[in-house]
Specification:
heterotrimer; A alpha+beta; B mainly alpha; C alpha/beta; A: Alpha-Beta Plaits; two-stranded antiparallel ribbon; 7 helices; 14% strand; C: alpha/beta; N-terminal domain of TfIIb; Rossmann fold; Dimethylsulfoxide Reductase, domain 2; six-stranded mixed beta barrel; globular
Chain lengths: 198, 334, 988
Amino acid sequence: MARMKFLCDADRCIECNACVTACKNEHEVPWGINRRRVVTINDGKPGERSVSMACMHCTDAPCAAVCPVSCFYTTADAVVLHSKDLCIGCGYCFYACPFGAPQYPRVGNFGSRGKMDKCTYCAGGPEDDFSTAEYEKYGRNRLAEGKLPLCAEMCSTKSLLAGDGDIIASIYKERVMKRGYGSGAWGWKTAYKETVSV
Amino acid sequence: MKTWLKTFLAMLALAFVASAPVAAQNNNFNPTKESVKEEQLLNSLKPGERLTGRISIPDEKAASLIQPGGQEWRAFHQQKLPFIGGVAILGMLALLAVFFLVRGRIRVEGGFSGKTITRFASLDRFTHWLTASCFIILALSGLNISFGRMVILPWLGAETFASLTALGKLAHNYLAFPFMFGIALMFVIWVRDNIPEKIDLEWIKQGGGIFSKGAHPPAKRFNAGQKLIFWIVMGGGVVMSGSGWFLLFPYLAQNGVSDMQFYTTIHALLAVIFIAVMLAHIYIGTLGMEGAFDAMGTGEVDLNWAKEHHGLWVEEVQAKAKAASVAPGAMPAE
Amino acid sequence: MLTKRRDAVSGRARLQGIAAGLASGVLDRRSFLRRSGLAAGGVAALGGLTLGSVRKAEAGPVVANFKIDRKKNICTHCSVGCSVIAEVQNGVWVGQEPAWESPINRGSHCAKGASVRELVHGDRRLKYPMKLVNGEWTRVSWDVAINEITAKMGEIRDKSGADSVYLLGSAKFSNEGAYLFRKFAAFWGTNSVDHQARICHSTTVAGVANTWGYGAQTNSYNDIRNSKTIIFMGSNAAEAHPVSLQHVLTGKETNRANMIVLDPRFTRTAAHATEYVRFRSGTDIAVIWGMLHHIFANGWEDKTFIQQRVYGMDQIRAEVAKWTPEEVERVTGIPGAQLKKIAETFAKERPSTFIWCMGGTQHTVGTANVRAYCNLLLATGNVGVYGGGANIFRGHCNVQGATDFGLDITNLPLYYGLVEGAWRHWARVWDVPYDYFVSRFDEVPAKAGRPARTRKENMETPGIPSTRWFDATSFAADDVDQRDVLKAMIIFGHGGNTVPRMPDMVKALEKLELLVVADPHPTTFAAISGRKNGTYLLPICTQFETSGSRTASNRSVQWGEQVVKPIFESKDDYEVVYRFAQKLGFAEAMFKNIKVENNRPVPEDILREINRGGWSTGYTGQSPERLKAHMRNQDKFDLVTLRAKADTPEVGGDYYGLPWPCWGKPEIRHPGTHTLYNTNLHVKDGGGTFRARFGVVYPEKQPDGSTKDVNLLSEGSYTLGSELTDGYPEFTYGVLKKLGWDKDLTQDEVATITRIGGGNPDAVGWAIDLSGGIIRVCLEHGAIPYGNGKARAVAWNLPDPVPVHREPIYTPRADLAEKYPTRPDGRQFRMMNAGLTVQKTAIEKGVAKDFPIILTSGRLVEYEGGGEETRSNKWLAELQQDMFVEINPADAAARGISDGGWVWVTGPENQSKARMKALVTERVGKGVAFMPFHFAGWFQGVDQRGNYPKGTDPIVLGESVNTITTYGYDPVTGMHEGKVTLCQIKAA
């Protein structure tokens, strides 16, 4: 089985937000929840870079580690998913997540956040593949259709890469060798305890 | 005068902007070569800092790209907290067990007199039990959310455990309010009797008399041990309430996730200590000492018990009662 | 590149005992769109509790085990032309998939493209025709609306003339829609028919066409992969054309190309440059002349290229000599050394391409700017080569097509001018007598000392530009050079917040007798004014709900198929134009050769008519059949050359989308032209020369007062395999005869030519030869029908034949305005252009002191154009919820403005003001502010949400930048000066 990862090549990212709306479109994600987002570092200054960020599907995922009800599970493709039926909306995964991936329908009184929502790597949830219940809670299950996450598939400049970690790392490495620069595989060290060295 | 100055300065600044050649500034640089590098940025972060940028979505949380603080929080939550909690709670239980084995139940040395004295009126008891019952549920649901996954989940199964925890979370969120009320009430009604005094030193010197039979250091309504508990409850209650408040109303946190991490850490850390202390309190009020539970049970304690543990208070009460018995219609104390 | 997962079956670890969710029931179409879900799982199983909430799916879940149709269309936003693959179930668009096979986008999208499905959810779309009755929006039927509108049009026509009805078309039309709308204007009898190109690239079209023949992007997005040096000037492609950056950045990486961004603002594009150059808005010519100064001084120019293919470069050299590095720095702010470096890079590290957008075009010197850019390319020999060229990124999805089809006040379709020959050409194509059209135009009486115009003269007079329709409404009748002022605006697919001086526009709107907005959304026009009656809203569907072709910026024509039927009561442009024509009584003549099914003209048939008449621009080879074959075979085209291998079935040898010119009839299978003016290719392979459209010789005035005929045909340069090895003029039947090539014509072809020629068949040129014979024969001999001429560095027919720097109308540099004033006042397009008076007055009043900040504007990636469509799209609207002004930290600090705080921006005209949020950023330099131009719905601090018909208000509203922007018009095209004015900003 492949070890699925995301890699955002910030030297290609132009903050076009295609990944963000592709995700909204594919999963009918409601207003206020952003499973993916693009952050611009050093905006307007020399060195500015934009990075598309979502759940990185970490190795030894912090969310899963701190979840009081153990609602997370890791698939054979190393995708970190969770069960909305088990989730109690406590917010712990949000505190632990280095990438701000967990999202909640609201931030209300009495700590009522509703069920946590996050990037599923377009791999649905614990329900049966392609079931209505799966769609409504987690969105479409592209992985089971043999497709990759739509955010990466639709990335305007092929900045956001998704797929087997070794393959996307080698694509990135090849790019950096060819062009002679690279601002780094953002989030890799934090998520996967490794980095793409060129 | 001040406004005038301000206006003048503003005008001066404007004039400067206006007169400065609006020509382009020198921006002679290579954005490709001089780009930021993730590694450099991460390395230059100070503890508690996040890697943040600009994002058009009006949500401050979303502007944070990487927050290494999450890993520390996780480490605390997964390693330090279970250790501290284990040491505090299990250690306290072990200590109490050892104490029980060694000292046994502290008896009323003079035996039950058969006569009782009113130790706690209904308001006192209401306050105590309101706070205590809330505390117990808060403690259990809190412990569950922190350690239930290790202890109860394998036993109950995922869904039942999740439902139980969700209920626990609800209870925790809502019982926080009566608990806070109870703490406040406690302060109002008991603070007068809990102000530390000289005789408390004597009591402490004698170790409260609990380590040897026949020793009964002087104590008023509340002995130094109880005063200590009172102040622990007050301090703990305030800090628990304060940190809990931000957990209940997360949008009040100024610094987003870092604040939340801070408050949960404080809340959890103090909670385990608080629970450990309360275990001792519960022990001495029930199993550890004969006659003690009645104080909060019925409110009536045996006179002998009272004389042994709160001799000065009994004298005080009796003196008052005598004076009061002159007054017509007053009920006798005994 | 993405890797595909090998194993489709998910092998995920499952949690125990999670109950299944809701079973899917049978759904009708509406509930399909609006279904909601609720979780019932393990938690609820315990005690009937519903804890928290699981989000509800709001629309279009894919129903398992139900057939999915895949439809292919083209994104309706920018001009890159990304293919969109729609998944349709039961008539509902349920999902979007990447179009991997498209050589243009290879599956990619930007935020807009990735969210186009929402356009046909249409929560905020106009659902049925509406009419304003005493200030209240009232629902009416299509029949009532069309009857009332056409009756009113007739009334105005009788009273004030055909020119009093303004026909504003759209860059969102398909080619067929644009063509029909232009044809409609011809039948109605006015030349006041325009569209968004006026405000985006009209100056480009005019400037570039006047330089070398055609006013379009010479190369393609894909071809930038070949470039060694790429200059972006006044283009923020990363936000305006995001998918183009895929080609740009990949090319930059593989070639280690230089990517130089010249812009007043440090844009997202600049963030990826190898060199960023900040300069003062509105000084483009000074910058370019500054570069050429170094190039000429050091002999870096391409001397052979200039000698063979360029006319007039010496005159440019003389002007450029004045632009010493010191003067350039004084005017533009760019340090001499930096400019020298980029000049050297551009000239030496070739091929070099020059990319510009509205940063260059939206100026009073727009046309001159564009010609300066062209001169830089010509001087360095960078035109007509792979990796070089003027890569003009157009704006809207079909602004190229709408321009081509003559939604323009100076043209008939396909750049046939307004001259009699052109009218006669189209009359022949349409099979309608020429005299009929003459009869449809107004006679214009003599006014204010100006001579009267006959119908024929009026028919050959350009109309009113869309930038000034409101002046033509508000001015006194004597000041408008037509029968009467404007009384009616018929607006198809055009925003109301896209032109400067909105306070003036609002006043004019209130004066109109008739306002018709035909659009998927009500647009700003519907909400901004205090109109009470005489206003109609017609719901038009998007291009996803109809079929037709659209032309991307690189001239590739792509066919889009209908994804879903028009939603609600909306109709497509074809049907609405047909219904108008029907009521106005000319449908039969107008649709003589076009099949109409259920009131809907068939787009394939419209395209066939275009093919029969579009010789001038080579729109003749793109038959619907060939275009559809291209869409089927997208994966057969090379990513860089855009060409299919010769042996490919159906599309062998073609360039993708048959980029025009695609010469001759479809049967001769010309492959289209990937790069214009490329002499390294045979004409049959898409080769070409500069167009010989300016004559054979030019009588140039000499210093001694005499004139000398200077050759305008190329010298020793010709396309590969051409039988003619020197310059040659445009082809006519007469020229063919001289060359003895006429014997290659078939009898039918000669017969057609003779019929067209009447008494003088020799004069029949290639562009009006309906047989296509002349073109066919030219190609056989390796010659290009439009002739082999030189490009003109000097366009003697335009104001400022040699482009000269002129300060913006509202310049911050009064000192420079004396030396470089704007052009003198003059009458253009039926009205006075009083630019110089306005400039002088502003300087006398010291406007730059009260309004010390330069204001410029531009795009955001999430929105497009006037923004109604995109601000109504919830997935996009969430990403940009507030109108803002970018302001430099120094300026903000001086004004006590904080990031995210409210400010008032005030402008120098109309006491205009606008309230918005401040974005304090170093993107803009000190003394410069930037605003996005997509917002509307607030006007001078007032939220006008209530003015929209209920349920059609865009999610996000905000102030329009054009409330603040000011007077200033390019003398050649009437382009507004949207990219530079002055403003003041105060904390609110």
